[in-house]
Amino acid sequence: MMRDDIADEVLDNADEVMGEIHPLFRGAPSSTEFRKLRKRLVRETRAAIETYDMIRPGDRWLVCLSGGKDSYTLLAVLHELKWRGLLPVDLLACNLDQGQPGFPATVLPEFLTDRQVAHRIEYQDTYSIVKEKVPEGRTYCSLCSRLRRGNLYRIAREEGCTAVVLGHHRDDILETFFMNLFHGGRLASMPPKLLNEEGDLNVLRPLAFVAEADCDRFARAMNYPVIPCDLCGSQEGLQRMQVKKLLDEWETRSPGRRQVMFRALTNVRPSHLPDPKLFDFSALMPDASDFNDKAVPDLRRH
Asked: Which parts of the sequence belong to the tRNA(Ile)-lysidine/2-thiocytidine synthase N-terminal domain (predicted)?
């Protein structure tokens, strides 16, 4: 039996036991469509975890929860894997309240408590810093993400975590690749697994193989209390939104295009790219001795 079949069988058999479900899946639809979606999310997340060797048994992961559809999906699927005995790590959910005006500060603590999820809520007013430091008309994302990342690293260390786990999915990785291609002049994207500069924390993206559309379907079906980002979400003309629109148009014209492009990112041929730092082109020289040993035709006979 294949690994995917075993994982599906574990889910099927466990669900037959009364009450055998993590509280994060309380109220889940009983439809065949949702069941297939749930299995796909679990299977793809587990595949990414195994492919990029994310697990060290006994580790503790800080699972970052923004309140968006992607982080809710991440939280639920990781707890599903742990509930089924397929993820031997300790999970701590964390929300960083960045002080955005109107942010519903009680939503996530109440949700996490109700669903029996270990968590930490941290308040740090990075919103005011971003608004003060970023000139009018410039995008907030870069400074906002740096401040957020610094705080999350600090919290992870305080909580004894070995990894900061983020909800970036396949489409985020693709969008970042094209942003670097179009605007940064480099071939780079979000790695599924990264060691921070200090060398003491891994940054993990277990949803690397998961489509954004599936995260959206899952969060909607579960009726999770999704909280929009009013800081960057309020800005128009962002490069990421432009790239997202372009990818949407390609996907509409050629369904499955996103998956093909993502597969290309996992099938790189350095010898077919013009970067001398990736491949030793100087070594590609014919052997002169082999050439001299070959018979040379006598052209005088013709």
From this structure: 61-222
In whole angstroms, what is the distance from residue 50 CA to residue 202 CA?
15
Q: Where are the beta strands (DSSP E) in 153-236?
A: 163-165, 193-195, 202-204
* Positive or negative torsion for Cα 84, 88, 90, 91: negative
From the CB of residue 94, how many other CB atoms can be counted at a distance below 10 Å?
Answer: 24
Q: Residue 215 annotated as binding?
A: no
Q: Which two tokens stand for residue 99?
A: 């002080």
Give residue 58's identity as a one-letter amino acid code: G
Helix (H) or strand (E) holding 109: helix 107-114
Cβ-based burial of 170 (10 A; exposed 0-12, middle 13-18, buried ≥19): buried
Mean pLDDT, the chain, whole residue set: 86
Residue 226's SS3 state is coil
pLDDT of residue 288: 66
Task: Kindly report, residue by residue over 67-105, the tens digit of the pLDDT.
Answer: 999 999 999 999 999 999 999 999 999 998 887 777 888
Q: Tens digit of pLDDT for each residue in 20-61?
A: 678 999 999 999 999 999 999 999 999 999 999 999 988 999
Residue 187 amino acid letter: L
Closest C-alpha to 120, from 162, 61, 172: 61
What pLDDT does residue 97 have? 85
The annotation status of 232 as a binding-site residue, yes or no, is: yes
Q: Cα separations (Å) of 191 from 115, 215, 247?
A: 31, 19, 20
Which residues have CB under 8 Å from 133's CB, separation 6+? Answer: 143
